[in-house]
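PROTEIN–LIGAND DATA SHEET

This sheet pairs a single protein chain with one bound small molecule, fe (ii) ion, given as SMILES. Inputs appear in the order they were entered. The predicted three-dimensional arrangement of chain and ligand is reported afterwards as a token string under its own label.
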Amino acid sequence: MTDLATHEAMGDKLDLATYVPMGDKKNSEFFEEYLPRVYERREKSGLDQLVGPMAALVVQVEHGDGVDYMAELAAMGPYRFQTARLTDTHKVYVLQSQPEYPRLIVLEPLTADYVDNITRWNMLYPLARRKPNARYIGEVYQAQSTQAVRDALEPQNIRFAYPGDTVNAFYTNKNLTFTFMSDFTYNRVGYVDVDLDDLDALGLGESINLTADERGKLDRADALQSEHGVKGLVLGVDHAATRILAGDREHALLEYLTVVPYYFWGAYNIHEMNSSTNVTRHPDIGDEKKSPARVFTANNTPSIVNSFDNLPMPTEDFVRNFGRRMHHLAMAVIDGHVADEKNVDYVVRQLAEMGTPFLAKVVGECKDDPNLKQIFSKSSPYSLLITEYIERCHNFEGFFTRDNVASLTAAAGADERYEHGHVFD
Ligand SMILES: [Fe+2]
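PREDICTION REPORTED AS:
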């Protein structure tokens, strides 16, 4: 099998035409036919040259939750507030972990009655409507020219938001452009052609400062993380996983691979959970945290036929309860030990003491062989996102082990149930 690390060690570029994807999930003939055509078209249209690594991840929270969410992030991981701008509709906060890793952009509407497409979409789903403006929006990729990206992708039926199309003008900036929300994932993809650390270049609006109280909240979260010895152990985003409906698996993959320079790394069938985990990655970046992998998880059978065999369907349930959306952001924990405890065990124990609730316990064993230890937090009350902590022991290359994913999916499924009548889904 072609291996990314080997290619990099050899200074070789991954050849998408000959790469054999990992995993045992069977794709349809349709997918096998179109995947190479998508790669070829990308090459011809120049997209691979026009678009670089991931520059930011964007999350919208409810009015009033921005600072609390940033405090939660400061306690739980590496992201720290850097700067903020005031637009006509939102406060826009930019957070940073390591300078070479993507920024995290938090959008907070200025009023409690703010409504846009996200609000309307969230209101359709029983477990999403309690925070109707909270949603992971999408990734922003560094691009040479936003206009050139639109020129390359619009003939391929990729739709972009134009000024006046959206209530929130953040999506239609000259130097920061976003696709429509995908019908398969309900995520957008954005492209930026200026340095995201130079918000003046984006002309987003006036610079705003945090109040003393707000600053105090973030400082206390940061200090708490330091006191518990967690600071420095959680590095950055390793991967981001969207949950989609069973029938949309291949469409979502082909769509994502059309709009960004990633490749289909592979897909594994998780029989116990009746789902598959499908991974796309950047081909030229050795450190995943510089351009995190994008994962798509889908049930193997749609809910409508699932009751014939009563197989598990936690992924389908999640989508029925919350709508298609990002499920978790995985944070990489540096491999190693604190005393004789693995780092991820230590981090999770400390975070639990600090008040972070987790789903079940750390899964996976890290002994002498490369392996993974992983755990899911409960979902954030602000972003609705789960945080996964992942320690790659002895440089484990993959994103999961089958056993781990089955346990994690089961744990998350138990927490994401929605009860109505006597039917649990
Ligand atoms: Fe994950």
